[in-house]
Amino acid sequence: MTFDVARIRKDFPILDRQIRGGHPLVYLDSANTSQKPRQVLDTLADFYERHNANIHRASHQLGEEATEAYEGARIKAGRFIGARDETEIVFTKNITEAINLVAYSMSNATAAGPGRFSLGPGDEIVITEMEHHSNIVPWQLLCQRTGATLRWFGVTPDGRLDTSNIGDLITERTRLVSLVHQSNVLGTINPVRMVADAAHAAGALVLVDAAQSVPHMPVDVTELGADFLGFTSHKMCGPTGIGVLWARRELLDEMPPFLGGGEMIESVWMDRTTFSAPPHKFEAGTMPIAQAVGLGAAIDYLGEIGFDAMRAHELQLIEHALEVLTPIEGVRILGPTKAADRGSAFSFTVADVHPHDVSQVLDDLGIAVRAGHHCAWPLHRAFGVQSSTRASFYLYNTREEADALADGIREAQRFFARR
Ligand SMILES: Cc1ncc(COP(=O)(O)O)c(C=O)c1O
Questions:
Q1: Ligand 1 center to residue 373 CA distance, Å?
Q2: Which of 100, 134, 182, 234 to mutate to test the pocket of ligand 1 (most atoms within 8 A of CB)?
Q3: 339-348 pLDDT, tens digit each
Q4: 94 CB under 6 A from ligand 1?
Q5: What is the maximal distance between C-alpha atoms in the chain?
Q6: Residue 352 pLDDT more than 80?
Q7: Quick one: 220 and 326 in the same domain?
Q8: Is 237 a catalytic residue?
Q9: What CATH code is carried by the domain that includes residue 170?
Q10: Integer Cα distance of 91 and 268 in angstroms
């Protein structure tokens, strides 16, 4: 299918809005959360209007329909990332919960005694300085609870993963390596397979944070060499409130549960419980049912557009954004400046203008970006900056919107830096 951005924009009703006194909305904050196409919105409305019921436990037609729709979304999510089957897909509320699920399961295993997932002093978890806080803090907490040590890869000045000391970092002490596939700040696409091969050679497990890659490129868990992989629906045209943890089935079989409650049990006595088989063992309580169904619709939507066509469109946008942003005096783009090496999130600083002021001027012009540390404070420190402005492009953005961004930055410079 050929990629027609004008036609795609028609799928997103919000893009017709005029804001801040009549400016057409220029939405450049999709790395934060994406907009939702009509197909996903209609699926959510249809679920609530026609099929709404609780799943797995209701013995009536609506209960059956809701269960089928929810489990159908699990099958779609599994196929989408190349899972062996749908039992490898655990629904969570977002990727943050998916990562915490693994970390808490490991500390529950530690409390239960020695085993594959238990940790102690001398064991190491390896992450990178490029991580979102959601792939840093859970591991810090896990290390505090177990006595394990947290280590990390650094970042090169041009915003790539510094793997020069991989042999020192990944050793027989390493139990888990957890890294981001595509940086939410720099756009960098990391050499996950190379790191995963090194981790596996040392006997460690690998978790991939695919929050920023899954929305933009085909992701296959086997090709990446992942043991665990997480993604989050709201960044890929789906609703908020639903995310995915994929793990190899044999790992899910062995891992102790994270949250306890209804639906994750096989039988309960007053003094003990036995648990359901995965993935249900990890889905306690009433799940975000409609949201899972909406995620299924988002997967269908992206599948119909096709990642090859979408990537080709985004590559043109990235090249154009680099072309119009790089010449602006005082603008420093954090991260790779070669389109092929990066995704479509651009974080930048503007000399003498605070990122919040840049974003305020842009907002006044109807251009939505994010300012701050983008939940990646250590990475900003590594670049010697407090914060940055981030413009992130997605399938519905246009070259003209990149031009509007560049004009807006110049406007901020005129206003604040008197250029
Ligand atoms: C790379 C990356 N990881 C994790 C997250 C956390 O996503 P969520 O808040 O949906 O859990 C984000 C969100 O910005 C992200 O960009």
A1: 13
A2: 134
A3: 988 999 999 9
A4: yes
A5: 73
A6: yes
A7: no
A8: no
A9: 3.40.640.10
A10: 23
